[in-house]
Design a protein that fits this description.
elongated, seven-stranded antiparallel sheet, single chain
Length: 626
């Protein structure tokens, strides 16, 4: 009989995909687990039960969450729903403003911010400018272009004739080029601008001359505004080297525009001087519909077919260079903004099965795309939104099924660890603001705004305090008709039905938190018997497991000692009518029985008790019969 003692000091491999359960030779095996639910992995290797979610507000409908940082002391969360914008400071709603976007537009909205102004765009919406005047005073208005970019959409052989050079004129085209959507669109004839005021037919329109025309008679020298109701509006945008960069539009999906330096709404190309506008298309042998532009070490362009680098120091019409770097591709069905993490850019793949790190290598002077979900691809399934918590080094990715995958990423220590967060509802959006992670969650037929709160251990939760202990607690209308868990005076008090927005406790309490319960789960990978005995299967006996804990109040462990489920061993065996003390140290649990199934884990942590749990390491002692 061979004795074995294994110490697992880190879980920085995260949850490993089931397809890799036969690969104990992988590095991820030593630090991975087969199942990690509702826990965060610390950069140092430990596992912590995730915080609860504090209920902040009920939203009018589906939302996109936009962080807005005015300065280091003034930060706001913007919740964009169909036709309106709600502004939150901390947990308070301070302003509601109408907007032209619809519910159908929300997934494709793109934005960028400069000082007190947020620019918002969608290919079917006039670009919007959201401006803050004060905490409670906000406005939403159309962009005002100092100079629009122009493009020739019609065939080069089509000519245009103006009936005059000033005032109101009639435009006659040699082919059908006008539609009703051209009303309000600027044209340029011989380099001079006109504004279409009416459309009589596909080949005839009326216009107002904005700059005196110099061409008389039919001419092929004419263009239309690149952005208009007729040809669509910008798809994505960012600021780079003091220029406003616009990536793609509805009818020009692979084109890039850069404003003049310091004049953010002026896209006039002029004569090609260094400070003037820049425009070019992305040409290659694949789809290049632009899905995002990002200002990093270089200007990065993410398309449906690959990732590009726009270089030039500084960027000028003469120095700009465009190079295709990788061929991963970004999603086309919705706008997923890339995220900066330690100088690298994280983006979702077009396949919907991975998150890639787009990093610049100074030695080769190119960008490389590394698959961050290579061993945990089962947790990444059609990402819908992303947010990075820089304080805790956690990337949260909302999935189409309403769950959220969380990546602990610490490149210096080679930490890339995924876990999965689940709640009684569907997470639909995420945003990070000054270390606070905000979520839009659909629960019981309505949408809620919630945030992670390290003082809570329940979801959709609220807290209350009273000078005199009491049994009846109200303010829970958002959970009407639901059974909620309660922590009273620091101790679990059981489950209670919300009726009339209130609950009635069995015992009076001075402080409570009430919300929806959730369970955390930690399941290790199966034991590697081949390394211990040279055989792939052998009778195995688990002798004991030692858990090293930090500030833990509740631990529930299944050692599989019987064929039927048995009650879990707990630390909180004391009466729970008072707050149980936290525990730091080692807990050793002994086990009985033999097993011939090497595919089963030796132990499992599963606990719905709304109390803290942090696991630092696990030591297992086994006996094996060769």
């Amino acid at each position: 009989m061979q004795a074995s003692r294994e110490i697992k000091t880190s879980f920085t491999g995260g949850e490993v995909a089931p397809e890799l359960l036969g690969r104990p030779d992988l590095r991820a095996w030593a630090n991975g687990a087969s199942r990690l639910r509702n826990v965060f992995i610390q950069p140092t290797g430990g596992i912590t039960r995730r915080p609860g979610l504090r209920h902040v507000a009920t939203l009018p409908g589906a939302a996109r969450l936009v962080p807005f940082e005015f300065n280091t002391e003034q930060t706001y969360l913007l919740a964009l729903t169909a036709g309106q914008m709600q502004v939150f400071v901390n947990d308070a709603l301070v302003a509601t403003v109408a907007g032209p976007w619809t519910a159908a537009m929300l997934p494709q909205l793109a934005w960028t911010q400069s000082a007190d102004t947020l620019l918002l765009c969608h290919p079917a919406m006039v670009p919007q400018r959201i401006t803050r005047s004060s905490n409670t005073s906000w406005s939403v208005s159309d962009w005002s272009f100092a100079s629009l970019p122009f493009h020739r959409f019609a065939d080069a052989a089509v000519t245009m004739t103006a009936s005059g050079s000033t005032g109101s004129v009639t435009l006659t085209a040699s082919a059908a080029v006008f539609t009703a959507a051209h009303v309000g669109t600027q044209l340029r004839l011989g380099g001079k601008r006109l504004l279409v005021t009416g459309v009589a037919s596909g080949s005839s329109a009326s216009a107002s001359v904005l700059e005196t025309l110099s061409i008389v008679g039919p001419t092929q020298d004419w263009q239309e505004a690149a952005f208009s109701a007729a040809h669509g509006w910008p798809v994505s945008l960012c600021f780079h080297q003091n220029r406003l960069v616009v990536g793609g539009s509805r009818d020009l999906p692979n084109r890039l525009w850069m404003s003049q330096v310091g004049d953010l709404f002026n896209f006039d190309l002029g004569t090609g001087l260094d400070n003037q506008g820049i425009e070019f298309g992305l040409m290659s042998d694949q789809v290049n519909a632009i899905r995002g532009v990002f200002s990093g070490y270089n200007l990065q362009v993410f398309t449906g077919g690959g990732e590009w680098m726009v270089s030039g120091s500084p960027l000028t019409p003469a120095t700009v260079q465009l190079t295709l770097q990788t061929r991963i591709g970004s999603p086309l069905s919705r706008m997923l903004r890339p995220v900066d993490v330690d100088g690298s850019t994280l983006f979702a793949s077009r396949s919907g099965r991975s998150i890639y790190e787009f990093a610049y290598t100074s030695l080769q002077q190119i960008y490389q795309a590394n698959d961050l979900a290579l061993v945990s691809h089962h947790l990444v399934n059609n990402p819908q939104d992303m947010g990075y918590d820089q304080v805790n080094r956690l990337l949260h990715v909302v999935m189409a099924d309403g769950a959220m995958a969380t990546l602990t990423l610490y490149r210096a220590e080679e930490v890339t660890a995924w876990t999965r967060q689940e709640t009684n509802g569907l997470v639909t959006a995420v945003a990070e603001l000054e270390g606070t992670v905000w979520l839009a969650v659909r629960r019981f037929g309505s949408f809620r705004l919630e945030r992670f709160d390290h003082d809570l251990a329940l979801d959709a939760a609220l807290t209350g305090n009273a000078t005199t202990p009491k049994r009846d607690w109200s303010g829970l209308a958002h959970l009407e008709g639901q059974v909620v868990g309660v922590v009273a005076d620091g101790a679990p008090a059981g489950d209670f039905l919300v009726s009339g927005g209130a609950i009635m406790l069995d015992e009076a309490a001075s402080s409570v938190q009430a919300g929806l319960g959730f369970a955390h789960e930690v399941v290790p990978l199966p034991p590697d018997l081949a390394s211990a005995t040279g055989a792939s299967a052998a009778p195995l006996r688990l002798v004991s497991v030692t858990f090293r804990l930090l500030d833990t109040v509740s631990l529930a462990v299944d050692l599989g000692r019987r064929a039927q489920p048995v009650p879990f061993r707990r630390l909180d065996t004391a009466l729970l009518d008072a707050a149980p003390p936290s525990f730091t140290g080692d807990v050793r649990l002994r086990a009985l029985g033999w097993s011939r199934d090497a595919s089963k884990p030796l132990w499992r942590i599963l606990d719905a008790t709304p109390l803290p749990m942090t696991l630092l390491s696990v030591t297992t002692e086994t006996r094996i019969t060769p």
